[in-house]
Here is the input.
Amino acid sequence: MTEETEKVGNVSQSRYEQIVAELRNVVEQQTRGQFTIGDGALEIEPMRQRGGENAADTQWTVKASLTRLAEDIGLSFSAVSSARWTSSRWPKEHRQTGVSFTVHRILARIENDTERFAVITTPPKGKLRWTPDDASRQVGQQVETPVTPQEKITAIHSLAQDEEIAAAVTTDFLKRPQVAAKVTPENKVRAVEELTRDETVAASAAAGLLRRPDVAFKAMGDDTARFQVNHAQAERGRQAREDFEQTNPVAPAVRQIDRTVEFLNLVTACHAFVAAAGRTVPGLRDRTLGDDERTIVHENVARVRATLDWIETAVDTGKVDMDDELTRLLRGE
Here is the structure.
């Protein structure tokens, strides 16, 4: 495409360059105008330390004076106040021709005078002139047109400061498989923990996850998780029994039956173990187990032996409490 046919928007390249030249003159005039407004406001109300008093007339506060000036010239108080502050940061000899008032205002945030006056004379590397976004990057402010990943992240955070908006955006993002796939496992775990701080939500989520066989299998591989589940089951049973005994009118009559049921359950458990061992042990004939296999079997035999001793003690004395050593052994510790 030749220069004659190359277009920017709806105009040719040459016409675009003419428009840019014309508008740069307009921007320069606006910059001088803004500084003129700022200088006028600064003359009426010189900069002073926060909380200082107006030495000329105590009835005129800075805001009162600038509000009256803004109304008299048809501008907002904030526009006049901003122009005044910007003028105070840029003495006339340090104002740069060809640099917009907007850029002057942004770079005015640089506290050190020497640094501020030097920076404005040196556009970013590879640039012929300062842009508002370049100036914002220089002072660490959010840019209007984010380019880098961090700038885009900052822009999203800024737009999602409202909690309802943030929640909706997060939900939408996590529905995108490509997005969810790029979240690290650690951050996924952290997100789930944050989202399940509410106990009702956590219980519902845990129940749903444990319905997935693979998840349940892996979760039960964690000793603490397995113990907590077993403890919760036992505690739930205990609470249900206590509630029944305290509130149900037939509880006294059931207690005697309970003893019979417990006796039958215990005998059935012993019978099932003996029967299972009777079926399994003969299969070891002429088979030599490895060291690891023998170790595992011996450990389980020790647990069984300890359990049998516990059963005998409970049957003979009625005491079912486990000491710490037995508790650890039955947990496999």
User: Anything to note?
Assistant: Residues 7-144 form one domain. The first helix runs from residue 13 to 44. The beta strands are 7-8, 11-12.
